[in-house]
Amino acid sequence: MSADIRSLGLPELVAAVMVVALNAYVLTGGADFGGGVWDLFASGPRRAEQRALIAHEIGPIWEANHVWLILVVVMLFTAFPPAFATLGTVLHIPLSLMLLGIVLRGSSFVFRSYGARDDASQRRWGSTFAVASIGTPLLLGVIVGAIVSGEVGAAAMRLARAGETAPPSFASVYVWPWLAPFPIVLGVLALAMFAFLAATYLAAAARDDALRDDFRRRAFAAAVVMFVAAFGALGVAHVSAPHVRRGLMSMSGGALSLQLATGSAALLALWSLARRRWLIARASAAAQVSLILWGWVLVQYPFIIPPDQTTRAVAAPRATLVLLIGALGAGAVVLMPSLVYLYRTFGRVESTDG
Amino acid sequence: MPILLLPPEFTRVLQLQLIPSRPAYCSPQFISVQYAGLQNRSFREMPDLLAARTQMALSLGFHIVFAEIGIAMPLMMVIAEWRWRRTGDRACLELARRWAKGTAILFAVGAVSGTVLSFELGLLWPGFMRFAGPLIGMPFSLEGFAFFLEAIFLGVYLYGWDRVSPRAHLAAGVIVAASGAASAVFVVLVNAWMNTPVGFTLAADGSFATIDPIAAMGSPAAFQQALHMLLASYAATGLAVAGVHALVLLRGGARAFHAQALAVALLVGAPAAVLQPLSGDVSARVVAETQPVKLAALESQWRTERGAPLRIGGIPDAERERTRFALEIPYGLSLLAFHDPHAEVKGLEIAPRADRPPVAVVHLAFQAMVALGSAMALVSLWAGWVAWRRRDLTSNRALLGALAIVTPFGFLATEAGWIVTEVGRQPWIVQGVMRTANAVTPMPGLVVPLALFTLLYCGLGTIVVTLIVSLVRATSAPSGLVPDRDPAS
Ligand code: HDD
Ligand code: HEM
Ligand code: HEM
Q1: pLDDT tens, position by position, A280-327
Q2: I need a surface site. Which of A82, A350, B231, B257 has the fewest CB within 10 A?
Q3: What is the pTM for the complete model shown?
Q4: A86–B126 CB contact, under 8 Å
Q5: Residue in B closest to A90 by C-alpha
Q6: Which positions 129-148 of B are in contact with A (Cβ < 8 Å)?
Q7: Helix (H) or strand (E) holding B46
Q8: How far is CA A190 from the centre of its chain?
Q9: Does A337 touch chain B (CB under 8 A)?
Q10: pLDDT of residue B224
């Protein structure tokens, strides 16, 4: 496919919309995962109330939140098919495990809500739900880490050259790209981020003050892990992910201000949690997590899979991109009011449902 | 059926193809597209390919059951709720609420199994997606938005009984029903394109020279497959639900409640089941025209002949290229496939041996679908006749028994039908354009994920069945909500 059938800017536009969808997934679906984490760590005298609040907040909307992920996948294979093929090939193992997590988490959640009421089965589904809620974000972070580190792209190149040189070993293509320090640290970071988001949301949503304080403490704990993981990621990148290090070091002015903004959002989130300003806490936590996401995008730009697949090089033909943008626009017109309606309906109501 | 005549746009699109006067997928000179890192591998020698195909088949076979339920249940709930609002009969309200409980479970399993599928396209068939992504992405994106609407308003419907006005609640149900049907249509358009690919031309190196994703959505098989799939969803789910309630009635369950359930389920299922053989006839004729090798496989027609017979049953023998023990109805196939007793039907011989699908599987699956479909249509006609004459189905124990027997038929027919479509397309993943063997991932050891997902689906399936059975059990106990009175009163 030559450059002349593509116009300037379309691939980047689609990529940007993709990141927006991913951002929406992290803020909504990610927080649902975080809720599962706090379900596992429910403790103290209000353990039952904590679990009830989590179930109540996730219940009506997790399936809708989940569609963001599907939208990202669909956009990826429509607009950047070689990138999708690369990810599916090299990251087969972590992606399959992540799918397992998604399936177990979604189904155990409904089985718990609708299944037998006896304690044994409640506990069984509850722990499946919680364990899957931890494993899935970890794997999501690992996958992102593997992409960012450039190892996925490198493995795909080795695979493509398989005919010319000696075939690469199984592990060098399908295991080591993701089972490495940097991806694992990013996995922890993703998990901590989701847990932090969830704790802040739950603190804001709780009705009584004691429950709010439970989640406030949890938000602080998650924030600590998040900071440690973030600095750990920088350190590990310095040693083992030169590509990332270079991206971070050669920060342009725009990237630098993004970092500053991330830092300020983090401080604001912590301050408002400390002062019990729940709505501000909620908004600034969401802003902080989103900025981290966009920071990743900026480090990686213009690559969709570093070190060789740029957004532009792997983009689908222009006709596809134009239609995709049109479909996304039309879809958004229907979608946005519906989402607003959903969150309005379930946003702030006291009653629990039967 | 007159709908069969392809509109002129199709001909225009077909002329875009590599071979100007004939579409590529009809041509015996098939093109093979190759990709870096993926050798042209022999079809039968690869355990990995077999594992990948099995995993895909398993995932789709699992998902489709929940998808069909997700398409038809919302419609039935809406009808029940609407009846309650019209008549004030509490049984209808209770029905809508109980169905909603079951649907919540089934929908969640449908959503997660669908998510698995969208990833599996890349995990198992990266070569296919790299090639076809830009063409089939359009219906998948539209489907994505349909999912969104479906999930959002299902949330409102299931959890919003006390939070939104009755009218908004009913409207939410209508949106769920409509977007479920829309998502089925969109995804089936993708499959129709795999069967009859249009909307692109290839350059010499196998990349696209021109591409038209809109034309790809309107492939020649699109209309018939979408129609047949929608009818299948309503027929399978409607008759299955009717069958379950018929069984409970036979065992003496609460009469008013289950009579309403039966009525609503049959209202959705029976007309669809009666129409399904007609739509199947349309399907067969489109297949005859656009996928001659598949038609030959599903009818186990080895030689090209005029006035071909219709074979019922029989064991295809691929070695000797003949079918034994079949009941042959003279001229039947020519008549059904082309509406002309002397029409020429192409035999499997037009394709080289390596390019033929496994005939026995396809033939048997097709026979199974037709047999199951005929039984469903007959029972539906019987129910319709009884309802029309006496208006009380619940005291006709023979009919209730028949309904109970056909409970699983629709889902079995669906699985059989998809086996016809997908196995009948082999060795092609995109008919005449790309071989399945060239699309599969180069990763070795695919039996491991296959085993993992098989276990997962077995586990999930068992749990879902247990939960649904316990929900149904709960309705057999007379409920406080519903006075047990005769529905006629
Ligand atoms: C309730 C389910 C059900 C029932 C009762 C029937 N079918 Fe069917 N059939 C399907 C469910 C289905 C399906 C699973 O939905 C398929 C697979 C792909 C498709 O488009 O529909 C299908 C495919 C399919 C195909 C292949 C289409 C293709 O590959 O493009 C043919 C020729 C028929 N059917 C014909 C029939 C006939 C003659 C029937 C007469 C009774 C019949 N079907 C009943
Ligand atoms: C409408 C959407 C569908 C799409 C896009 C789709 C796509 C695919 C793909 C990509 C493959 C692998 C390549 C191949 O074997 O040709 C496949 C195989 C298969 N699918 Fe489908 N499929 C769809 C629906 C279904 C459904 C609902 C079933 C239900 C049972 C099904 C049954 C199978 C089977 C049995 C195979 C294996 C065929 C073989 O390898 O012999 N498909 N499908
Ligand atoms: C390759 C083929 C397929 C893919 C990739 C796929 C993908 C998906 C995904 C991602 C979902 C989840 C949406 C959510 O989260 O709410 C889903 C659900 C659904 N799919 Fe599929 N699907 C495929 C085949 C089919 C087929 C053949 C049909 C039907 C005819 C179908 C109909 C539906 C419906 C109605 C739902 C809504 C969920 C439910 O009611 O259970 N899909 N699918």
Answers
A1: 988 999 999 998 888 888 878 788 888 888 888 888 888 899 999 999
A2: A350
A3: 0.89
A4: yes
A5: B443
A6: 129-135, 137-138, 140-145, 147-148
A7: none
A8: 7
A9: no
A10: 93
